[in-house]
Amino acid sequence: MMHLKSILLYTLSLFFTYLLMRFIFSHKEGLSSEEMANSLAENEPTSVDHVNGVVSAESKLAEQAVMERLQQYDEKLDGIKESINKIIKLKDPIDNTLEKWSRPNGLKIKRVSIPIGVIGVIYESRPNVTSDVASLCFKSGNAVILKGGSEAINTNKILAKLFRKALKENKIDENFIQFIDSKDRKMVDFMLSKMKDYIDVIIPRGGKNLVKRVQEFSTVPIIGHLEGLCHTFVDKDAELKMAIDIIYNAKLRNTSICGATETILLHEKIVKKFCNPILKKLEENNCKIYGDQFLNKFYKGKISIAKKADWSTEYLAATVSVKTVKNCEEAIDHINKYGTMHTDSIITNNKKTAKKFLKNVNSSIAMHNTSTQFADGGEFGFGGEVGISTNTLPPRGPVGLEQLVSYKYEIVSNGKTRK
């Protein structure tokens, strides 16, 4: 692992290949691997400026949320490179003394960080997951087996090859990073049911159906979350402009991510004053609104009456549920009943109310005066993440570099024996 920094830097130097892949996809759909390799040999761009257009979705039938995750614009490509650079600069999390102490009997005890082992990651749609996960797992000393979705298999395959090439060039076993080059779903079943002696933990990243399937069939321990049903509660002591800005961002900045707010809770004392400026901005930006009967009395825009099922729906689209509550306690109760322990936020200038909210919601990420869209390992300063965990046991929240380690105790004495 001594060459870790040079390996990740070398991967960045190979990144032009990925940029060229994007160019090829936007001009030559349906290329075979051999044809793509020939095109790579024939063309060698020297900057991002040579790469224009949007990468073609590898499934014409992909839904809008999937399409948004597949499309690799220049900004997203820069994001991938930036994420790798951030991970390079993070402190090595392995072989660090987490705690140490001495006992009266002469024992000297240390708790030291170690790799988990082999991590299996099953994911959908987002090609950036390949680069983030490969970087984080390798830097934390773990081998990783990547099983991406069929929607972006060509993109993911090229990214994985770049990392493997970087490992090989630095005389490191390229099998630290492995990619399952198959669209056969039986491969996932095999990972879940037949690999418990070879994989230490499975991390699913994708839609509800994928995660549910992994949770039901995996014989390997799991880190992950089923849904991201996030809430934003606007308290009676909230500032209106702040509430407008935060809710607009939390809902519509990116509707396809698990940190998008799906339900807005409004304190009944501010509904009359707040509901129209807050919700009208959403509606003007093509957001469909489901609300309760109390809200319907005051909101002057278009609203559909919410049903009970709406309170437990993760839309991943420009749609939101809005419910009025009597107080902070009712908001907390609603979140703990219908939420998924992902990310929930309160907007208020009352510190006492905020503290009550932060301490009592069961969320793995609880926020105050903050958009739920910050539920991301990169935004936490982790460099990236392999996923977000809503498990009761740790790790919880964004799973970054420091969460991808275990530990062991190292004990030293001068020949002590126990009486």
Write the layout of secondary structure elements.
Blueprint: H1 4-13, H2 15-27, H3 33-42, H4 64-70, H5 74-89, E1 97-102, E2 108-115, E3 118-123, H6 128-139, E4 143-147, H7 153-169, E5 177-179, H8 186-194, E6 201-205, H9 208-217, E7 230-234, H10 240-252, E8 261-267, H11 271-284, E9 288-291, H12 293-296, E10 304-305, E11 319-325, H13 328-338, E12 343-347, H14 351-360, E13 365-368, E14 387-389, E15 397-399, E16 405-412
Parallel strand pairs: 3-4, 3-6, 4-5, 7-8, 7-12, 8-11, 9-10, 9-11, 12-13
Antiparallel strand pairs: 1-2, 2-16, 14-15
Tell me what the structure shows.
The protein has 419 residues and is α/β, with parallel strands linked by helices. 37% of the residues lie in helices and 19% in strands. It is built from 14 helices and 16 strands. The strands form four sheets. The chain has a seven-stranded parallel beta sheet, with helices on both faces. It has a four-stranded parallel beta sheet with strand order 5-4-3-6, with helices on both faces. Strand 3, helix 6 and strand 4 (143-147) form a beta-alpha-beta unit. Helix 2 packs antiparallel against helix 7 and helix 6 runs parallel beside helix 7 (153-169). The longest helix is centred in the middle third of the chain and has 17 residues, at 153-169.
